[in-house]
Write a structure and sequence with these properties.
It is built from 1 helix and 11 strands, in the order αβββββββββββ. With about 150 residues, the protein is mainly β. It has a 6-stranded antiparallel beta sheet with strand order 1-2-3-10-5-8, covered by helices on one side. It is globular. The termini are far apart.
Length: about 150
């Protein structure tokens, strides 16, 4: 736990300012979902601009039980907090679900920019993330279905 403390502080700091401009915040049951993907994934941009260079933003992502995202990478480092359920994530191009690590609610994960990974959930899961724009996703297999709210980079 001692080794996780700096990560928890690092991840919590951007979330403390992730309230709407009028003040307040969001509970996991009040997230204003904006888009839905083919597998039932949902996305919400909670604050900030992910298309603006150097702009911090906060997002929420919902993964239904059984949904998995194909191996991909992001243009910026993501700091992710598991708000509900258990996020399963593996690194590399193999899409080996058996090798994916499980992070239950309350966990914090840092996914470095450019790190190829795959993720999914065996139960309904909600994550809250922070990153700095511009944000895009590149799938190793260009024909893989994109998750909800995912700007694709070819």
């Amino acid at each position: 736990m001692r080794r996780l403390a700096p990560l928890l502080l690092l991840a919590a700091a951007p979330l403390a300012t992730a309230a709407p401009l009028a003040g307040g915040g969001w509970s996991v049951d009040q997230i204003p979902w904006q888009t839905e993907g083919a597998q039932g994934t949902r996305f919400a941009l909670l604050e900030g601009r992910r298309d603006r260079p150097g702009s911090a933003f906060t997002y929420a992502f919902s993964i239904p039980a059984g949904a998995w995202d194909a191996p991909h990478s992001h243009s910026a480092t993501a700091r992710v907090f598991v708000a509900r359920g258990t996020l399963r994530i593996g690194f590399g191009a193999s899409n080996d679900k058996a090798a994916a690590l499980s992070y239950p609610a309350g966990s914090v994960i840092v996914v470095p920019a450019g790190a190829v990974h795959y993720d999914g959930a065996d139960e309904d899961t909600v994550i809250i993330g922070t990153a700095v724009g511009p944000w895009s996703t590149r799938y190793l297999d260009g024909s893989a279905p994109a998750s909800a709210g995912t700007p694709i980079r070819r």
